[in-house]
Design goal:
Rossmann fold, 359 residues, globular, alpha/beta, 9 strands, 14% strand, 4-stranded parallel beta sheet
Length: 359
């Protein structure tokens, strides 16, 4: 097992510089805010007079999680619904009153390109968010607005670029109040958290390293709560899959209390392999807070362990990202414990190659 305090060894394993990307997330969020502002100057003039009834983000994987964040974050801040599409096709209702953000970091995600073409055919207002690729080429040819973000990241390491520009565009379309203070507070809080989780901080004082040690050789089960931490739980699961190359699962309160909890009556030898991470938030419903407390007691008797992690920060975006940032670091440290490089996703690459050959 790799020593998490052996920084030279961690750098040696980290071919795609995932640790560097995590260190730069605070600056990425601030840069993304400026990208959104610059994009809004050209977008707003052509879009402001259009009636927008709903917003949809279409994308997959790391390019879609920004849509999930948006959906959760603005649920109590905007008068229009936000939906996320992870498919080749769009819902029947999509039309002239739908604003669609087609998000593909690479610009070559086949599902997103398919959805982009449908959005254009349906007469939706479309904005492309990408670093390049076929999506950017098509959008420029179609005279569709493009927000171009820096290339060179793994999509899952570009969350700030793939989320904050959308937020800023909605603000400038008068669909959302000013987000400048929220984003600045987020960046400041992430800098504080970086000083807690960075690899130079020893394991004994580094909660991300300690948590990775708890998850090592166990099956991580991540639980969030509807409307608050569900997206953070989903992000944790995906980051553990892609960075650590191991299975993980996620669910949400209160739904899991109506089904998944019964599974803890199962075989003891299986349950002893589970490690539960519960993500909590100050705005969780009072009954959900009670459910979390009771569920912790019930599951702690049979699982390998249970950790409850509370969101930190003085503003909503900061609280959301506080959980995500810890999960990102934990997943990378977990990869190192397994002795694997967190960057490459060889199975995804093999699948895409097989799909191309099938054509």
């Amino acid at each position: 097992m790799v020593n998490l305090d052996d920084y030279p060894r961690l750098k040696e394993l980290d071919s795609h510089k995932m640790l560097d990307a995590l260190a730069k997330l605070p600056e990425q969020c601030q840069e993304a805010q400026q990208l959104g502002k610059r994009a809004a100057l050209s977008l707003v003039f052509s879009m402001k007079e259009k009636e927008i009834a709903q917003v949809m983000v279409t994308g997959l994987g790391g390019s879609a999680i920004g849509g999930d964040l948006l959906r959760t974050y603005i649920a109590d801040k905007a008068n229009i619904p936000v939906m996320v599409n992870r498919h080749y096709e769009l819902a029947r209702f999509v039309g002239a009153k739908t604003l669609i953000f087609a998000v593909s970091y690479s610009g070559n995600t086949e599902e997103t390109i398919s959805a982009y073409r449908q959005a254009k055919a349906k007469g939706a207002t479309v904005v492309a968010l990408t670093s390049g690729g076929a999506l950017k080429e098509m959008a420029l040819q179609d005279n569709i607005p493009v927000i171009t973000v820096p290339a060179g990241f793994a999509p899952r390491a570009a969350l700030g670029y793939l989320f904050i520009p959308i937020l800023v565009v909605l603000e400038h379309l008068d669909l959302l109040n000013s987000q400048e203070t929220e984003v600045n507070t987020l960046a400041s809080h992430l800098k504080d958290l970086y000083n807690q989780y960075r690899p130079e901080v020893p394991l004994a004082k580094n909660y991300a390293k300690l948590l990775a040690s708890q998850l090592y050789n166990r099956l991580p089960v991540i639980w969030g709560s509807s409307e608050t931490t569900e997206v953070a739980a989903q992000r944790w699961k995906g980051q553990i899959n892609e960075n650590a190359k191991v299975l993980a699962y996620w669910n949400v309160f209160p739904e899991l209390n109506h089904n998944e909890i019964v599974g803890f009556e199962g075989p003891a030898e299986l349950l002893r392999r589970l490690y539960l991470v519960i993500l909590s938030h100050p705005h969780d419903h009072p009954q959900v807070k009670k459910r979390i407390s009771i569920t912790k007691e019930l599951t702690a008797r049979v699982a390998a362990g249970v950790s409850e992690i509370s969101a930190s920060g003085n503003a909503e975006l900061a609280r959301l990202f506080s959980l995500i940032y810890l999960g990102d670091y934990t997943s990378v440290y977990l990869a190192f414990l397994y002795g694997v490089d967190p960057g490459p996703v060889k199975v995804i690459d093999q699948l895409k190659k097989a799909l191309r050959e099938e054509k």
